[in-house]
Amino acid sequence: MGVVVCGDGHQMLYRFRGAVDALNATWLDKAEVHYLTQSFRFGSAVAHVANMVLAFKGESRQLAGLGGETRVSKALPADLEHRTVLCRTVVGVIETALANVETGAKIYWVGGIEGYNLQDLEDLHALSKGWRDRVKGKKLLQEYPDYDLYKQIADESQDPEMNRSIKIIEQYSADLPELFAKLRRNAVTDELEATITLSTAHRSKGLEWDAVQLAEDFTFDPFNPENEKEPWIDEMNLLYVACTRAMRVLAVNSTMLEIMKEFVDRRDGRKPNTPMVFRKKQVAAA
């Protein structure tokens, strides 16, 4: 009896956890291969965006969108009854939730609100106020005895999640505990009751929604020659997964817009269509 193996290497997201692409296993070297290049989730517009991402990854096979009519824009229509925002980071999800909390929006958190570590930001807020006794996560105190050191490390490392956390702390300041309480009160466990669904792009894999907005915390530069190849592939895969969650309307972010512009410039001859350039992976000294 034969074995059927199905997968999509362009949706491999968990290399950082040790995941590997099983389709590259040596025991499949002589397998008969068939490509599934049609999707009935979305139409041609979303497929076109997805194909731009795939093109830079070197994929020659085109994804065909055979679903209903789809639109791609910079923002979702304001009158939608429900929208989904997909973020690169957990902090990005919280930032989006805070931006909507005062509207009274009912928010569905994919995987549950408890999975987004609001307590970590509450601890950082307490540290920023000098309330060390209110910090529940003792690891924070061990690594950063005070808030100034946290800010210093964030600045030196340019860690995007740390810097977004600082932005939240300093933007909302004294109001943050009450805002977090509102977030918990407004969280719903039935998505049908929600006006907004929030998720990281990682958690969105396998899911779909009518209207999807890509958040602005996908901050990597896809055309930076200092990118290492494997992390670059992982980020491009994440964008590919995120944009293909949309069934009707996709609102792209600035990173996706940059990819789209680069694709069109190369296609139309305004830029040379040269291979992607990557920095060689650094090998740790023995």
From TrEMBL:
UniProt-listed Pfam families: UvrD_C
Domain spans labelled UvrD-like helicase C-terminal: 148-252
Top-level taxon: Bacteria
Keywords: ATP-binding, Helicase, Hydrolase, Nucleotide-binding
Gene Ontology biological-process entries: double-strand break repair via homologous recombination; replication fork processing
GO MF term list: 3'-5' DNA helicase activity; ATP binding; DNA binding; hydrolase activity
Keyword flag Transcription regulation: no
Protein name (database record): UvrD-like helicase C-terminal domain-containing protein
Organism: Pseudomonas fluorescens
